[in-house]
Write a structure and sequence with these properties.
CATH architecture of the largest domain: Alpha-Beta Barrel
Number of strands: 21
Strand order of the largest sheet: 13-14-16-17-18-19-20-21
Bound molecules: ligand C2E, magnesium ion
Number of domains: 3
CATH superfamily of the largest domain: EAL domain
Number of helices: 22
Distance between the termini: 105 Å
Shape: elongated
Helix content: 40-55%
Radius of gyration: 37 Å
Largest sheet: 8 strands, mixed, barrel
CATH class of the largest domain: Alpha Beta
Length: about 575
């Protein structure tokens, strides 16, 4: 007798095998009870099923066993395609899982989440596949309803903004040319006021019908209360013809005809713009232009405007990354005190050398940042850097201030004064070492907003000073010199640059200096590019001077000559 059959190892092994096969039987029973279940041979012929499957699919074993999988699917191209995909994947030896639409014997559709497992023999030949299914019809119906709701504008039945963007994404991915047309009804709000709410509904309804009538094969969407869009392969002249079409088909409200005109923009892919974001931006921008010029026109932006816009969008995108990764820098422009002949302050100016876009000047950057709201982040960054710097100068025993340019947009934030005080505290910079430069545009807006004036006074009480920058470039109003806590004004460099050539300008500057001094306001001059300008400004009694003749803006590492 072979003793080895009775070793402990063998006993344990045979016990494990038994328990594994027992366990597997239980799993199989559980799966069969809990799920719909059937077995396919390698060619897709049904070999066996469980009763749950028969119940749901309405098939009898006699009718379904031996038949092909195609019988279980709806008779549609998309279903056949999916069926092939599944069989191919199983043949390759991979599990397939996902949602499938099925059909009952009577042709009724239902949805299942399926898991298909291929079984191979020792020679790696596909024997059969187990298909385990769970019904998800309710979930799928709900999802379809939600998608429908998300894809349609409930008021007009047109496509939603979301769906329009989906369609454009699809066209972009397939590189299909199209024109994105954005339309808005002229004087919509006046029209609305002339009418009541039901009329607004009727107007939208009628306009929708006109759009469908003139553009029957285009995708039409509703983008806002009074904004409609088309994705269309049609030519510009046909699209523009919609204006004439509206003349011949007035809208009838309460049996009265109302003539409607539209403003519209056409943005072509790929000729004008190449990404969804750029297309949408360009469309809005050019629609805005049409409206500002009086409306009643459907047009495109000129080529150069398109490329400017692309750069703008690029700047917006890159700026977010630059701020996040601290790629901005601050340079310092010395301001010389005319009495001591020494530097009294440095004006902090933002600099950005973008990897993707090259150097972006503040003149380009600041207006974009103001529009997008990123100006607050730039402001905080420059404030932190320059207050840190001013604190260092103070610790080293230098009496030097820092001037920071802030935009009015930043002061629309009610907490701006608090933020500035926090930065001063965190950086250890005394409040009286900070001077904030504001432009005349800022001053004009500040005048109209009590909270801005209050914040400026609050900061001023703490010791922060304010400089009115670019004086004379805007309104040169005396009102805000009285209303706002302004300690200095800086004469705009346009005056400085023409003073030596134009006597009138010289007299104007003299007037500005004496006027400011009579109000106890100090006078600074910027943009000094020659010795002659500097001497004349000194003689006229300017208190501070800055400009390329004195120095260009410098990096911190280049400032050493001022600290000896
Ligand atoms: P600004 O405040 O009037 O700053 C002076 C601008 O004139 C600076 O240009 C400076 O480089 C330039 N400049 C100085 N001396 C001369 C000169 O002799 N000749 C000429 N032609 N130019 C001179 P920059 O740095 O390009 O800044 C332009 C404007 O952008 C600034 O005008 C300011 O309004 C704004 N800006 C700059 N940095 C910031 C910032 O951090 N925040 C905000 N909100 N605005 C900023
Ligand atoms: Mg300035
Ligand atoms: Mg200036």
């Amino acid at each position: 007798m072979n003793q080895t059959n009775y070793t402990l190892d063998n006993l344990q092994h045979s016990f494990e095998m038994k328990s594994i096969s027992n366990e597997w039987e239980q799993v199989k029973a559980g799966l069969k009870e809990g799920f719909m279940f059937y077995v396919l041979d390698a060619t897709g012929i049904i070999l066996s099923t469980n009763s749950k499957f028969l119940e749901r699919s309405e098939w009898t074993p006699k009718r379904v066993i031996g038949k092909s999988i195609w019988q279980l699917l709806p008779d549609e191209e998309s279903s056949r395609h999916k069926g092939h995909q599944i069989l191919q994947q199983l043949e390759r030896g991979s599990i397939w899982q996902g949602p499938i639409e099925k059909a009952t014997k009577s042709g009724q559709s239902y949805w299942v989440q399926a898991l298909a497992i291929p079984i191979f023999d020792e020679e790696d030949i596909l024997q059969h596949s187990y298909i385990i299914e769970e019904e998800i019809t309710d979930k799928k119906t709900m999802q379809t309803k939600l998608e429908e709701a998300a894809y349609t504008d409930l008021e007009t039945g047109l496509l939603s903004r979301y769906k329009m963007e989906e369609i454009m994404k699809e066209q972009l991915s397939k590189k299909v040319e199209f024109t994105y047309v954005l339309l808005s009804i002229d004087k919509f709000y006046t029209l609305k006021e002339l009418m009541n709410e039901q009329h607004e509904e009727a107007l939208l309804h009628e306009f929708t019908n006109l759009l469908k009538k003139y553009f029957p094969d285009s995708e039409i969407g509703r983008m806002g209360r009074n904004e409609f869009a088309l994705i269309t392969p049609l030519s510009d002249w046909y699209i523009q013809g919609f204006s004439d079409f509206l003349k011949s088909y007035p809208v009838y409200l309460d049996s009265k005809s109302v003539a409607i005109t539209v403003s519209g923009s056409m943005t072509r892919y790929p000729d004008d713009q190449k990404t969804l974001h750029h297309i949408v931006e360009a469309a809005h921008n050019s629609l805005q232009r049409v409206k500002q010029q009086g409306g009643n026109l459907i047009t495109t932006l000129p080529k150069d405007a398109h490329s400017k816009l692309s750069r703008r969008v690029e700047i917006e995108k890159e700026l977010m990354v630059a701020l996040d990764q601290q790629h901005l820098e601050v340079v310092y422009l010395p301001i010389i005190d005319t009495v001591t002949k020494k530097v009294s302050s440095f004006e902090a100016l933002v600099r950005w050398e973008s990897e993707a876009l090259g150097a972006v000047s503040p003149e380009e950057l600041i207006p974009i940042a103001e529009q997008t709201g990123l100006i607050n982040d730039i402001g905080t960054f420059v404030l932190e850097k320059s207050c840190q710097q001013a604190a260092e100068w103070q610790q080293q025993g230098y009496d030097i201030k820092v001037n920071v340019n802030l935009s009015v947009r930043e002061f629309h934030d009610k907490n701006m004064a608090r933020t500035i005080m926090q930065i001063l505290q965190q950086t250890g910079c005394p409040a009286n070492r900070l001077q904030i430069e504001i432009t005349e545009k800022f001053a004009l807006e500040a005048e109209a907003e009590k909270t801005i004036i209050e914040q400026m006074h609050a900061l001023n009480r703490e010791g922060v000073r304010f400089v009115l920058d670019d004086f004379g470039s805007g309104y040169a109003s005396l009102r805000y010199l009285q209303l706002l806590p302004i300690e200095s004004l800086k004469i705009d460099r346009v005056f400085i640059q023409s003073m030596t050539k134009n006597d009138k300008v010289l007299r104007l500057i003299k007037g500005m200096v004496s006027l400011a001094h009579s109000l106890q306001i100090r006078v600074l001059a910027e943009g000094i590019e020659s010795e002659q300008q500097m001497k004349q400004l000194q003689a006229m009694g300017c208190d501070g001077l800055q400009g390329f003749h004195i120095s260009k803006p410098l990096k911190v590492s280049e400032l050493s000559e001022y600290f000896e």
